[in-house]
Fold this sequence. Notes:
alpha+beta; CATH 2.40.50.100; 4 domains; four-stranded antiparallel β-sheet; elongated
Amino acid sequence: xxxxxxxxxxxxxxxxxxxxxxxxxxxxxxxxxxxxxxxxxxxxxxxxxxxxxxxxxxxxxxxxxxxxxxxxxxxxxxxxxxxxxxxxxxxxxxxxxxxxxxxxxxxxxxxxxxxxxxxxxxxxxxxxxxxxxxxxxxxxxxxxxxxxxxxxxxxxxxxxxxxxxxxxxxxxxxxxxxxxxxxxxxxxxxxxxxxxxxxxxxxxxxxxxxxxxxxxxxxxxxxxxxxxxxxxxxxxxxxxxxxxxxxxxxxxxxxxxxxxxxxxxxxxxxxxxxxxxxxxxxxxxxxxxxxxxxxxxxxxxxxxxxxxxxxxxxxxxxxxxxxxxxxxxxxxxxxxxxxxxxxxxxxxxxxxxxxxxxxxxxxxxxxxxxxxxxxxxxxxxxxxxxxxxxxxxxxxxxxxxxxxxxxxxxxxxxxxxxxxxxxxxxxxxxxxxxxxxxxxxxxxxxxxxxxxxxxxxxxxxxxxxxxxxxxxxxxxxxxxxxxxxxxxxxxxxxxxxx
Length: 498
């Protein structure tokens, strides 16, 4: 008689709750058949039978048991109703691949210094699938990028963390029952098991997970009213959450005293889980407001000299370098010159020390469908106009495609954000920590200004410099912004370095 113990399901998890027994005491179970559901404080896991036999349950539903506790036993042989199908199943399973008895645990790898957790975005393989070494089985999403997760061995996949589950670095994602060789013809293996496989369908289809069952019970919704999207038709937590949102919509009636809307649109609403990127953005923005002495200073720039120069040479520039001449190269070059003259704006606080950078790694804010990302132009002070423009295009394209690497988004010393592309007239941008300052560009609007005693129309842009007053004084911040203004209103200085 083999003992079945509570498996290790994560580094920080010390105990689990027996949420549900899917088989009863005395039932004949097959190898790898799901016999119970275990629930921890972080996720729900399925417990499979290590081999075929008769089930003897030791721990009741609802009991809390520590990791490594024996919760049931499986006796060899079993009732006379199922020995022949078991033997038949075993031969078909071991016909081509050979089980080694080794179980490979796959854990969340370290994907960057500042990343502490990831979210299982998509499973590309299903529970019970045969996977090959280095075959991509899932997509994992962090707050900065999306990564592909390759299989670490040949064998049968056992999923531990479901889609949309957030795990810490080192958390258990899945297990692989290591096999030697590859499966023969899939059709030959699946054909005889199809009739008996229907048994798996009966317990999974329409059956809620423990977390989903709690939500449905609280909302008074029957599981028969919810369609499951999990493995085998299982009702997941997300299915239950959606059900509770849609149910009140059909039952709610307006009070007698409330006005009745007889025309116009509906009053639908929907709940959507925050992505890891959005949650991290929220945490970082709040921490910046709480942990820095942030101020913003403003100025305005007459953009006519830059616009005239750009209009005169943009065609030749594009023809020679193969990239368009935009405003970002002018602003980046102007910022780099000003940063050299006012090093505190290019510095950062590290404990009781100030780190001054003798180079300019300029971060550029890029809006993507997943949220705001800030890739870095390395050593921007040494790049030419065409090199800066090419790098801006490359990083922006990779950002919108979700293909930026961790290295491409770390280590900036100063940031530039351009809200003007969306029509912003004025804003107070938030510092990108641990940097000390960020420059905000805005839209260009024709305004009436006085030049040499005459009222003339000029294309004007408002600039905003947000800075950490703990390290940058008011004199330095204002002087920095004035220097950027001077360089942009006389772009010949950028070329001559004066």
